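Example 9 (inverse folding). The structure is encoded as follows.
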């Protein structure tokens, strides 16, 4: 949906060898957000992407911008303690506000709107988990509350609600970031595949079209390439699916995700004057076999039976890195790295993580 309705970008390929302050590999939300932040401090940046802006993982998300990540706080507090859960939550809530601020400052037309986000329960066992999550998240200083009033067209027992969340047209948002990055000595290069990186002074990115020499390199390619940091052992790739169907009703000011299995993610969106209901789920490790068509059929059946969607207009899937310890990785790529940084392991919540 997002890729099909955003139009295409036309940034050039890398024209040859160049020198820059920071090279960023990957024109998704992580790479472009980092690039714009660096440019705003006065540094020159070159963003390199093997395809087009927004056609990777970010362009295949739900478009939710939220610090409520199903039952993430119970999981993180159990594994790492309340302080780590608090840091994770406050960072994500700050990201919601940061995106809101960038949309306003850069005049990005991406259908940004404020919504409430719900993690809902349909069974008594799930309801107990929701109550715990709501109390924990509120105690961590997040905009959380338990509620039995959930604006879904089918009955549920209750939910944790986060107010002041958001949703966006993911690709239009990335295109707006790319426009803000380009110019003033900074660049966005598309259809330029990074082949090798070399740590050092300068750090070097080899591409098929030339070499970029920089003080620092940021690798923001979902799963980092090159083997440094052994992230292929520290994250497992996870695939999930989405379908979108047209409806006659206006979009809700709310987004949803279930506690009960099979997990379902729900939101409504207005795109170019048309309302859509999006339904996601059917996630699995990429190593697990299964019938992809059957996964889409189950999502379509849920959208029809529960949400009143008659016909599916779009369907797509995406693949995310799930960190083994539950926490994203951001920093130097390895203990021995000097000038190569990484952003990965965003656990399917990359728009805020």
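The amino acid assigned to each position is listed next.
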């Amino acid at each position: 949906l997002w890729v099909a309705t955003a139009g295409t970008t036309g940034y050039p390929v890398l024209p040859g060898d160049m020198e820059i302050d920071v090279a960023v590999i990957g024109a998704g939300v992580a790479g472009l957000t980092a690039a714009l932040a660096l440019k705003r401090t006065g540094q020159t940046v070159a963003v390199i992407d093997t395809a087009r802006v927004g056609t990777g993982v970010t362009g295949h998300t739900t478009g939710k911008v939220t610090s409520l990540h199903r039952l993430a706080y119970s999981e993180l507090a159990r594994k790492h303690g309340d302080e780590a859960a608090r840091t994770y939550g406050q960072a994500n809530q700050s990201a919601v506000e940061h995106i809101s601020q960038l949309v306003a400052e850069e005049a990005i037309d991406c259908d940004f709107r404020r919504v409430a986000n719900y993690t809902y329960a349909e069974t008594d066992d799930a309801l107990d988990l929701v109550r715990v999550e709501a109390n924990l998240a509120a105690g961590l200083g997040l905009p959380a509350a338990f509620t039995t009033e959930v604006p879904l067209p089918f009955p549920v027992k209750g939910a944790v609600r986060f107010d002041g969340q958001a949703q966006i047209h993911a690709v239009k948002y990335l295109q707006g970031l790319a426009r803000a990055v380009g110019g003033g000595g900074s660049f966005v290069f598309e259809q330029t595949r990074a082949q090798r990186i070399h740590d050092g002074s300068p750090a070097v990115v080899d591409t098929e079209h030339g070499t970029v020499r920089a003080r620092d390199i940021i690798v923001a390619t979902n799963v980092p390439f090159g083997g440094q940091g052994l992230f292929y052992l520290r994250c497992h790739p996870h695939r999930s699916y989405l379908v979108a169907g047209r409806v006659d009703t206006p979009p809700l000011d709310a987004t949803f995700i279930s506690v009960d299995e099979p997990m379902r993610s729900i939101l409504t969106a207005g795109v170019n004057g048309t309302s859509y209901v999006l339904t996601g789920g059917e996630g699995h490790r990429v190593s697990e076999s299964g019938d992809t068509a059957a996964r889409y059929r189950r999502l379509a059946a849920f959208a029809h039976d529960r949400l009143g969607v008659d016909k599916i207009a779009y369907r797509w899937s995406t693949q995310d890195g799930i960190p083994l310890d539950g926490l994203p990785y951001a920093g130097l790529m390895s203990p021995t790295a000097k000038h190569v940084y990484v952003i990965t392991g965003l656990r399917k919540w990359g728009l805020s993580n």
